[in-house]
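quick one before i forget lol
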Amino acid sequence: MDSMTQLALGAAVGEAVAGRQVGRRALLWGAVCGTLPDLDVFIPLGDAVRDFTYHRSASHSLFVLAALTPLMVWLILKLHPNTQEYRWRWFALVYLVFATHVVLDSFTVYGTQIFWPFVTTPMTWSTIFIIDPLYTLPLLIGVIAALIAARRWSWGYTLNTIGLALSTGYLLWTLGAKWHVEHVVRNSIAGQNMANVKVLTTPTPFNSLLWRVLAVDDINYYEGFYSVLDKDKSIRFEPYPRSLNMIEPLTDSWPVQRLQWFTKNFYAAAAVNNDIIITDLRMGTEPEYVFRFKVGEMANPHPQPAPVEQMPGIRNYDRLNWIWARIWDSQAVY
């Protein structure tokens, strides 16, 4: 999730766990611990593919963060020695903030290696977009209420708890919405001679009503959309070529293998000018994608590996207007 959401979630969890005992320090340290795992983006790992695929690995491991928790508690007690009697509550605060951060990230399509190093497969439940105001706003309201309320009043603490409950309830709603969408998708694919495709469903930007359906086979990828408000239970798919032949000469290349693994096979290749590009199809909508990587160059007679480079993402903000219209109108045309 985005940094603001993780900061708000950390502060809210901190307030819920220890706000009555240590006051606003619980909000502060909750916000700090809610931000820490994402600081791995500032660590250069050598090239764009490594930076992309090792983000949310060790720094988001439940085991690594458990080992880091005593160090954080030691630091907190050094800075706030008068809270020694709440040592175990500080332990609960720090680890629960860490854990909720990485588990929430797993609900997005990017993927999070929460069981690293024992299991390195990224957990990718893909029920919520990376920025979703309906999840974040209740947290922010509750945190602000707890921040400004005097400790002799309980309404700030209560509003923070309500905000956490509402956000958690919304997250549960996204699970139910995804289950419904996938039921519709299975029925729709069965009627369109697409039995051998691999399917991913993910919410479109900033909402959980309109869902993007991505299907891939060895030749094409297919994109369709379904709104939970649609009366028609069929999904129209548009096919696009994956052009996997472009990277066949590069199958021994580590960046290519790594991207194939990390995207869980939801990728496509293309030749742009003289560059061979791999696109992560999970994040974006056709033809706008966030993560595109140069992995080779055209050569005679075969493509050759080239220094890895992240290419500029393709964005068209008119697409957001179409997404909003499509939520309510199944006939909306882009």
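fyi The first strand starts at residue 198 and ends at 203.
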